[in-house]
Amino acid sequence: MMLSNWSIYRVFKREMLRLAHQKSARNLFVIIPFTTFFLLGAIYFKGALREVPIAVYDNDNSTFSRTYIRLLEASNTFKITHYISSSENIKNAFVENNIEAVFYIPKDFHKNVLKKIPVQVKVYSNSTNIVFGNLVYRSAVQVTQLISGSVVVKRMAPLGIDPSKISGTVLPIPVNTRILGNPQYNYTYYLIPGLAMVLLQMIVFVAASRAFNNEWKKNTYQELFTISKGNILAMILGKYIAYSVYSLGLCGLVLAVLFPFFGIPIYGNIGSLMLLLFLLISANIFLGFGVSLLFKNELIALDLAIIYNSPAFIFSGFTFPIWAMPWFNSMYAQIMPFTHFLTGFLKIYQLNTPIHFIWPEVYKLLIFLLVGFIMILGGLTLNKKLIFPAQKTAAI
What we know:
mainly alpha, 4 strands
């Protein structure tokens, strides 16, 4: 049977209207994205963490210790909310005062500095949340290095040496860091895009996994068969185009509404990003169609779609590097299209990488397309009697 463009269009038109009238499809493509995207955005809207509540235990109470405290207060990272008077209160302070760190300035802090005896400022941090632990450590080092440098300069100044000329002695090997990708350490730029993309691909996969079995469940397949004149390619392509339109609408919501609303910059080429998104969408639609054809029970197909996609964010390497995972976790990460998409996405979105650097990810997404096509063929073979109800054979 010849493939007719008119048959594809009729299936496409029917599927567009059918998805628009299905409550579950409206929830997947409209209600859930709008609600979830902006709720997630609101959580991380503040972006970078500022004014982390801390306490100070000044056991020296000297001019120098008060200078150190003023530097802590001047830091954008810290906000001193409590002062502690004894070491017994340090542990209780975390629970009673809801602080994230305690800075302990030891007794004879100033005297030991003058005597050139090494001193330490102890920092107790609440690392039950590793974000606070890392932030407190990094900022504490910065403040302490600043005051240490000023001590060295003061010691050399009486020798008649110009302070501006002794920076090489204070810091003989300066570290000049240049941060690529989210230099602002902004959680909005880091988390929202990744969460939005993983939610997008889950919605597409779950919706596509109902494309054919839902027809059998609702007893509407005969209508689809008639409209397509029994041509399975027309059914698949018509449905694919319809699902692509809805999915690209989700991409538009993310890139044209969500990103500008929260001020998230895209450093790379938008055309390369759209190519990668289109491949992710297509791979998930084909894989979803494959699941839908292999499992005529809609609930089983949905369960499989959710089980397969739920760990995508964790296993993608977004929160923990894949190379540091056990081999079986790393292998599982490789069988999800989102893992490879995310690698290419970060290259473009944050690092402004030229398109030829994402070809490895493009090839891998094309392999998932092929796998989806093979699953579709398997589903067609397995459910041949359901797919061709009015005839014994049909051309594919």
